[in-house]
Amino acid sequence: MYLNQDILFARMQVGGIFLGILAVSLLVRQWMMRRLAKSAAGKAASFAAVLREDLATPTLLWCLVISADVLLGLIELSAKAERIGHVLVVSFLILSLTMVANSVVMRTLQAYGERHGVPFAVAGLSRTLTRAVVYGLGLSTLLAFLGISITPIWTALGVGGLAVALALQDTLANLFAGVHILIERPIAVGDFVRLSAEEEGMVSDIGWRTTRLVTGANNTVVIPNKTITAVNLLNYSMPSAEMGVWVPVLMGLDADVSQAERIALAAAAQTEGVLAEPAPAFIADPGMVLTHLQYRLSFRVAQYTHGGMARTRVVQRILDGFRQAGIPLPEVRRM
Known about the structure:
Layout: H1 2-39, H2 47-74, H3 79-116, H4 119-122, H5 124-145, H6 151-167, H7 169-184, E1 192-195, E2 200-206, E3 210-214, E4 220-224, H8 225-230, E5 233-235, E6 243-251, H9 257-269, E7 281-288, E8 293-301, H10 307-325
Antiparallel strand pairs: 1-2, 1-5, 2-3, 3-4, 6-8, 7-8
């Protein structure tokens, strides 16, 4: 009878310790989550907001696992069983921490890249490299905890990597070209570019082997990364996304140039997509020739894709204005 009471008391004591540790860890978790919530107030894409969202569920599991690890040391188990339990607990913590770290780093980089226009943070290749580094560190930590030497693994990878490098020269060339693109930044996700081979479109992704362009017809052009670094490339988004557009303005020799200038500038000002600053300019190009007057109307648009439609609308308004004002157009001389 006394033995049963002693066993019951011991079990109640162990259970109380387990619940006490669990309660303390949950209180610490609640305090930490409140601090993160306070730091993230009004900042949906901040590091604190990302960290709070990614830690919400894992921290509950960590509280349970840590309490369970303490419980394993309190109950009577064989040394082997206790060691196995401890290894499982720590391995779970390392793996889950690695997964959380990967999520936090990826989301933080994504938010930072979109907010500050950093191409490395939003490209597919950068996400792959970042994921490889984070999981590589987590795996190395787990192997070190398990007492597994990683030196032979690195040696085997080095020997095998040489054979793989010889077999995958083209793939590796594209991989390093992708890294070169991210570091040198000739293009970035969201830029509108044109290659010397006449391919043009908006960069939708820079992957580990290819770069993808979305064309004006809403098709995707897949280009090897080494091609991007090997050919002449025109980036319409550098140094800024704004682009200069011009249209020729031709008039007869008897035209009133001042009136034509007012009509042309008004046409640009009334066209959607034409930027007010810097202001459109009416420029002699070259001005007066033997058969007609030749000027140029220059203006800017927010990005390359707006240029074609803005140019069309401006030309239509100039022609309508010239016809209404009676400004003569150049005469076509027939041979």
